[in-house]
Structure formats: C-alpha cells, structure tokens
C-alpha cells in the first residue's frame, strides 16, 4: 500500500469521525432542548426524549395532543404541517406566542427562536406544575 493512499485514508477516516461526533453532539443538544421545552410545558419528558424517533411522543404529550397523533409524523407530506402545529401548541404551552413556530422554517431566525423558547423564562414569570406519568 502506498504511503499517500494510507495518509489519504486516515484523513477521510478522521473527517468521518469528526462529522459523526458533531452529529451526536447536535442530537444530544436538541434532545436536551426538547426536554426543557417539555418541562416548560408542564410535562416530564422522561427517558424517551433521548431515543431518536420515539422522542416525538413526549413532545406530542407536552403539546396536549393525543398520543395517536404521533403517527402523523410518519406520513411524509402531513408531517411537514403537523410539525408547525405541534410546535405552535408547544410554544403556547411554554408561555410563548404560538406563531413563533412559523418562524422555524427561516434558517437563522428559526434557530434563534428555538433557542429563545428553550432557554428563556416564561413571559408571565410563572412555573408550570410538572405533570408526571403515573
């Protein structure tokens, strides 16, 4: 094996490892943000918020929707519109304007709105009563 090919292979492997690490860190950060939004909505997210596809279930519950609506996230075109409806309800239950959900589609603005809702205090200053699973 040529030395250049070996070095090139290591470079590609390093890039793949770095990209994988960044993806895992982003996933964990978004899961933590979802956990905070659920808590601001008065719902204990539990462990399911850390499991990839299943994490939608605590979000649906925190939005006050029936659990069966989770299935709507699996339907391609419907999921796009359901996403906005879900976050509209989540933002309202977290004490912020629901129309903030419409701004999530704008790249930089959406990220700023998501982080604002996640880390800011409720506008009314109250803390929701935490609803736990029985």
Summarize the structure.
This protein is mostly helical and 134 residues long. 57% of the residues lie in helices and 0% in strands.
Q: How many runs of DSSP E, i.e. beta strands? A: 0
Q: Assign an overall shape.
A: elongated
Radius of gyration: 19 Å
Distance between the termini: 61 Å
Q: Count the domains.
A: 1
- Helices and strands, in order, run as HHHH
Structural class: mainly alpha
Largest sheet: none
Estimate the helix proportion, in percent.
55-70%
Q: Could you name the ranges where pLDDT drops below 50 across 5 or more consecutive residues? A: none
Strand content: under 5%
Mean pLDDT: 87
Number of helices: 4
Describe this structure in words.
- It contains four helices and no strands.
- It has helices at 3-40, 56-62, 76-93, 107-119.
- It has one domain (3-119).
- It is elongated and about 65 Å long.
- With 134 residues, the chain is mainly α.
- α1 (3-40) packs across α4.
